[in-house]
């Protein structure tokens, strides 16, 4: 065990103190869904709305993380698990810092999402399922990835030749074939208000 001689060093400024100063809860909003389902679009717009109302936010997005922290990881099964594990741990630090943390990763496997959820206290992890059919996602194809898959340039692509396991325990489900980006954002804000994550 590598961590044998390591202990967590507790400071005297606690998460609750940081939350009090910010006036809202530290929590992760974990967006999951197929590529093109709308995770990034909704997370970006939600962050705009939250920021404008004085909420301290941070957004973690798939490709951005792969540029730096996870640049050593590829797309093998092991690397995908490690990719998500690190993102979960970074999110945990941001939540401890009192930030409303928005993550937009396909995170296709229930087991991985459950593992991350288990690293958070109750109420600190909000799972948001951004739902859209594979047909709709492929039609949108915002990054041209589905076209590349169909040309055989990408393998093991979620939804095509790698599975996506829809969450069974999501706190919020957004069907982006039925609701607009604005409506999706509003329903998340309503959830945060209802469950007292926001001030006032
Ligand atoms: P993901 O992050 O899940 O891979 P993106 O947010 O990058 O997906 O892309 C989603 C695409 O779908 C964007 O081009 C967006 O404009 C479009 N779109 C159409 N309707 C919606 C909707 N209701 N919610 C979110 N995105 C939508």
TrEMBL record:
GO terms for molecular function: adenylylsulfate kinase activity; ATP binding. Residues 25-175 form the APS kinase domain. It catalyses: adenosine 5'-phosphosulfate + ATP = 3'-phosphoadenylyl sulfate + ADP + H(+). Pathway: Sulfur metabolism; hydrogen sulfide biosynthesis; sulfite from sulfate: step 2/3. The active site is at residue 107. ATP binds at residues 33-40. It is an enzyme of class 2 (transferase). Keywords: ATP-binding, Kinase, Nucleotide-binding, Phosphoprotein, Transferase. It comes from the Bacteria. Its EC number is 2.7.1.25. InterPro entries: APS, APS_kinase_dom, P-loop_NTPase. GO terms for biological process: hydrogen sulfide biosynthetic process; sulfate assimilation. Belongs to the APS kinase family. Catalyzes the synthesis of activated sulfate. This is Adenylyl-sulfate kinase. The lineage of its organism: Bacteria, Bacillati, Bacillota, Bacilli, Bacillales. The gene is cysC.
């Amino acid at each position: 065990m590598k961590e044998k001689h390591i202990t967590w060093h507790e400071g005297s400024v606690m998460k609750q103190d940081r939350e009090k100063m910010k006036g809202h809860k530290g929590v992760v909003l974990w967006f999951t869904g197929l590529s093109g389902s709308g995770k990034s679009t909704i997370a970006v717009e939600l962050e705009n709305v939250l920021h404008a109302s004085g909420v301290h936010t941070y957004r973690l997005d798939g490709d951005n993380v792969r540029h730096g922290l996870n640049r050593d990881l590829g797309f093998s099964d092991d690397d995908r698990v490690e990719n998500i594990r690190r993102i979960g741990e970074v999110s945990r630090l941001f939540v401890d810092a009192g930030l409303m943390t928005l993550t937009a990763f396909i995170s296709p496997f229930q087991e991985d999402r459950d593992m991350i959820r288990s690293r958070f206290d109750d109420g600190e992890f909000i799972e948001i399922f951004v739902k859209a059919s594979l047909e709709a996602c492929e039609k949108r194809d915002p990054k041209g990835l589905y076209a590349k898959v169909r040309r055989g340039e990408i393998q093991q692509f979620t939804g095509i030749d790698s599975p996506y396991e829809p969450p069974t325990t999501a706190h919020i489900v957004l069907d982006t074939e039925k609701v607009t980006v604005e409506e999706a954002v509003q329903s998340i804000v309503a959830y945060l208000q209802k469950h007292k994550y926001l001030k006032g």
